[in-house]
Amino acid sequence: MSARDQPYVLTAEAERRFREVLGDDAVVVDEEGRDAYRDPYWFHGDRTYDSSAVVYPTSTEEVQAVVRIANELGVPLWPSSQGRNNGYGGPSPRVAGSVLVSLRRMNRVIEIDPELAYAVVEPGVTWMDLHQALQDAGHDDLLVSVPDLGWGSVIGNTLDSGVTYLPLGTDFQAPTGMEVVLADGSLLRTGMGAIPDAKSWHVYKRGLGPVLDPLFVQSNFGIVTRMGYWLMRKPEAYAPLFLTVPKDTQLEQAIDILRELRLDGVIRGVPVMQNTITLSSHFPELLGKLQGADATLSEDALQELADVSGVGRWGMRTAVWGDPVVVARHVEKITEAWSAIEGARVDHHRTFGRDEWHEIVDFVDKVQAGIPNLDMLEALPDHIGHVGFSPAVPLVGRDVREVVDLLEEIVVREAGVNFVMGICVASERSALLVSGLAFDTSDEQQSATAFSTVKSMVRAAGALGYGEYRAHLDFMDLAAEQYSFGDFAYRRFCERIKDAVDPNGILAPGRHGIWPAGRRDGDGSGAVA
Q1: What span, in angstroms and rounded, lies between the C-alpha atoms of 470 and 175?
Q2: Coil, strand or helix: which one is 512?
């Protein structure tokens, strides 16, 4: 067994001391309680990434106490905010037997500043919590940029580079200013927060010297216990749109048109273009439940499904926000540009006014209006899970086409199921190709095939120069292996930071391929065998 996979066994002393600082109800060791913190999209019988306990601190001071005990006794900790990172391993730890640190009970909205349009939250605050807090405080003129499912943590989603869809969801614009517990139990505040009683902590993203906030995204250098999050003023007008691409051969043209609309500022936020199978999450009434785990449909069958349903081989959701006259003109410009695609359609059913938010009822319209919900879950069949691979690709039609074709070919050849793909336009110049496999979580062979197939996708995309932006727990090491420039200079630099700030290697060992010295394999690296 390699050093990195050596499981940890919880000692009686560690359990006792955690109970002393947190209380008995905040330390869970029984299997049923721990299983509440497993990704539901594992094969049901797989306990490879099992934990030994879950602890529930309720304050920054309690997090500090837990970390100090762990640092003294050598207990590996795996923190999560809400633990709803489903499809990426959820809250399960990379090192079996780790103690899960659930921050769900740290659920305060600490501050709402209506004048400067920002909030400050703890890790347990969900998108629904923050949205409700704004309503309760009478600030319904402020919007939160939200993801598709509203049950996740604002901080947790941010720290895993999660996607949200309003204009502030582009390129890490919304988060600002973090409070972080380090491995020795000390407390760090990033940016202007390093000044006592800082007045500009959550309104200016930098400070004096290096900007540290990104170091705590997808890393294992500290536990974030507080963060600022910028909000958006509710616009006078909001126009949700759905754009169709009738044929698969028109994808390149659509991407290039979209890029120019983004660069011109006509389309803002994070548009999402999905293939026919994936669009069932938006149109279950037209397409039925997600068919991602079903046997691959033929090209003719996919085209027929696209034509009969009217959603196209690719369909894109986007929106326009702003002054009514500007919104109307931008809808016209989008429609004009999209008309270059033969047979394409731009659906614009309604523009909502600022006082009409309560009339927004459709799932996609709610998400793009900053209204968190769980509606998308209704389109997922029972027992169907998913595992994702999402490389970052330039927003150029030929590049997107190359990667889409590569990944689809692997899925069809190795797994024989339908290909799912969502193209999240993360900026004016790049897209995240959110692909992967759906599978029956009660079927051991189908689950194993799904994971092996996605690993083939990681390797093949890496060979073409494309890397994962957010890796599943089961192949974090493999995804990190693709970042090999300069004899793994990036990883070696991260390892130096890890060894300096966490010399005992207690914080999330192995997260995104960053291993502490004591768990690196014989050559001193985290290399995949």
Answers
A1: 18
A2: helix
Beta-bridged to residue 514, according to DSSP, are none
- In a 13 Å sphere around the CA of 70, the CA atoms on its Cβ side amount to 32
Q: Among 259, 268, 469, 511, which one carries the catalytic annotation? A: 469
Q: What is the pLDDT of residue 47?
A: 86
pLDDT, position 283: 75
Residues 423 and 429: their CA atoms lie apart, in Å, by 13
CB of 92 closer than 8 Å to CB of 473: yes
pLDDT in tens, 171-211: 889 999 999 999 999 999 999 999 999 999 999 999 999 99
DSSP notation for 65-126:
HHHHHHHHHT--EEEESS---TTTTTT--SSTTPEEEE-TT---EEEEETTTTEEEE-TT-B
pLDDT at 438: 85
What is the per-residue pLDDT for 524? 45
Q: Which residues of 142-173 are buried (b: 16+ CB within 10 A; e: fewer)?
A: bbbbbbbbbbbbbbbbbbbbbbbbbbbbbebe
Band of the pLDDT at 379, cuts 50, 70, 90? Answer: low
CB neighbour list of residue 408: distance below 8 Å, 6 or more residues apart = 419, 421
Pairing of strands 118-121, 346-347: unpaired
pTM over 0.90: yes
Give the integer Cα–Cα distance in Å for 269 and 166. Answer: 5
Give the single-character DSSP code of 297: P
Q: What is the pLDDT of residue 83?
A: 87
Least confident of 24-28, 69-73, 90-94, 480-484: 90-94
**Alpha-carbon distances of 27 from 17, 53, 100, 416, 502, rounded to whole Å:** 10, 7, 10, 44, 24
376 contact partners, CB below 8 Å, separation of at least 6: 148, 149, 281, 282, 363
Q: Which residue has the higher pLDDT, 266 or 436?
A: 266
* Annotated active-site residue in 268, 470, 491, 519: 470
The pair of structure tokens assigned to 96 is 């079996």
Residue 104: pLDDT over 70:
yes
pLDDT digits (tens, 9 = 90+) for 337-361: 999 999 999 999 999 999 999 999 9
The structure tokens listed for 333 are 């410009």
Angle between helix axes 12-22 and 60-73 (nearest 10 degrees) is 160
Can you say whether the dihedral through the CA atoms of 500, 501, 507, 510 is positive or negative?
negative
Distance CA 287, CA 273 (A): 16
- Beta-strand ranges (E) seen in 182-313 are 187-189, 223-230, 232-233, 237-245, 272-275
- Stated as kind and residue range, the H or E segment containing 263 is helix 251-263
Catalytic entry in 88, 118, 165, 466:
88
469 is catalytic: yes
How large is the average pLDDT for residues 104-125?
A: 98
Return phi, psi of residue 366, to 5°: -65, -45
Q: What is the mean pLDDT of residues 101-118?
A: 98
> Based on the number of CB atoms within 10 Å of its own CB, is 281 exposed (0-12), middle (13-18) or buried (19 or more)?
buried
